[in-house]
Amino acid sequence: MKILQDFNFKDKKAIIRVDFNVPLNDKFEVTDATRIDAAKSTLIKILNDGGSCILMSHLGRPKGFQNEFSLRHIVEDISNIMGSNVKFVEDCIGEKVEKAVADLKNGKILLLENLRFYAEEEKGDVAFAEKLSKLGDIYVNDAFGTAHRAHASTTIIAQFFEGKKCFGDLLAREIESIDKVLNNSEKPVLAILGGAKVSSKITVIENILDKVDHLILGGGMSFTFIKAHGGKIGNSICEDDKMELALDILKQAKEKGVTVHIPVDVVVADKFSNDANTQICDIYNIPDGWEGVDAGPKSIALFDEVVNKCKTILWNGPLGVFEMEKFAAGTIALGHSIEKATKNGAFSLVGGGDSVAAVKQFGFEDKVSYVSTGGGAMLEMLEGKSLPGIDAILN
After folding, report:
1. What is the DSSP letter of 41?
2. How confident is the model at residue 353, as a pLDDT?
3. What is each CA distance from 359 to 57, 113, 121, 350, 371, in whole angstroms?
4. What is the pLDDT of residue 106?
């Protein structure tokens, strides 16, 4: 696996695929700069070697050239994070870009305009990738969030850099962290899967059953398992067409010696709102007109015990509707349990949009071992799929 440290970037122009697809408010201000921060160590290594950085990224899903999706809006944020003035060019291919690259001095950073202003980017167009490749001496992929897409800048471009391509620090850390959970884990291994739907996690569950000792199934998906077992779930979310599959998952887990933990009690609400009336119910006996919205106190205690006897922990998906303060207790308690286990030497990996949002919202970001930056890409790796953006560097 070629990494940054395998290269000296002195007098070299590194063309780097970063994932700066950051959220902007209606004034075009960055509201979460995590993805920019995450790329910092890669850029610093190249600049310290005496090289220069040409950054390429997408932002949103534009239809052609649209100002609201211009990367010019994030130049100031990148400059502030890097502590130096970042130059910007209003295109990503063509003469104007080639001139800006030719003028780029060692120790400097140039940001190209949104790649997705060209349809060729998402189509994986070879000619477009070749034009991008002409801008740099070494190709660095540091965009885990798009590593599962065979786009021009994430995959196709690599073919023009035989022997001169590598992973950036962020992408290398992502690969190592997921590999640590899936293939090099210290036992016992625990996977915590939450969120609303079993259907979105089926392939993940099937792939990790051979690798884990304990499996916590929480959040909305747990009601499909409960109903499949004959429980009364009131108005709780349920995928009726996945109940047979839920029973099959439990059967597979038993055959493989995996202990499955499902909530035993839940906080239920009479409406989906912060001002709802709530009560705590046995998860098998939720009254009609009420829906499960969070893990109950017995479930929280049970999960805490499981978490703190495990040495490798994967967390993907919340235990309740944490976006509403009234229904966040289960997810916060789980965060504290994982924090405690991590302090005691466990390796903890958090990934998937909602889990990452919860970890940030409740201040656990620096209290777990690693927080993944790529939701879809991480899920595909957990499903056992190979990612084109990673394969392009390895092959």
Report:
1. H
2. 63
3. 25, 31, 32, 8, 8
4. 98
Residues of the chain under the 50 pLDDT cut: none
Taking CA atoms, 349 is separated from 155, 182, 370, in Å, by 26, 11, 5
Told to judge if 197 belongs to the known catalytic residues of this protein, a careful annotator would answer yes
- Catalytic, 180? Answer no
* Dihedral angle, C-alpha 122, 125, 128, 129, nearest 10 °: 90
Strand order in the sheet with 189-193: 259-261, 214-217, 189-193, 312-316, 347-350, 370-371
**Pairing label, strands 265-269, 291-295:** antiparallel
4: three-class secondary structure by DSSP: helix
Let me know if 326 is exposed, middle or buried by CB neighbors in 10 A (0-12, 13-18, 19+): middle
- Is residue 83 part of the annotated active site? The answer reads no
Report the SS3 class of residue 363.
coil
Indicate the pTM of the whole model: 0.89
Burial class (CB in 10 A: 0-12, 13-18, 19+), 367: middle
Annotated catalytic residue, options 35, 173, 211, 242: 35
The per-residue pLDDT for range 8-55, each reduced to its tens digit, is 999 999 999 999 999 999 999 999 898 999 999 999 999 999 999 999
pLDDT of residue 165: 98
Strand segments (E) across 184-248: 189-193, 214-217, 232-233
Does 64 participate in catalysis according to the annotation? no
Q: Decide: helix, strand or coil at residue 313.
A: strand
Please identify which residue in the block is written with the tokens 């994030």: 74
Beta strands 214-217 and 189-193: pairing type? parallel
Spatial contact of 256 and 210, defined as CB atoms under 8 Å apart: yes
Residue 359: is it exposed, middle or buried by C-beta count within 10 angstroms (0-12/13-18/19+)? buried
Concatenate the DSSP letters of all residues of 219-232 into one string.
GGGHHHHHHHTT-E
Q: Which of 72, 197, 360, 367 is catalytic?
A: 197
- Catalytic choice (180, 311, 326, 353): 353
> What is the reported pLDDT for 201?
86
Give Cα separations from 310 to 111, 338, 385 (angstroms): 43, 10, 26
Which residue is associated with the tokens 């098998």?
A: 284
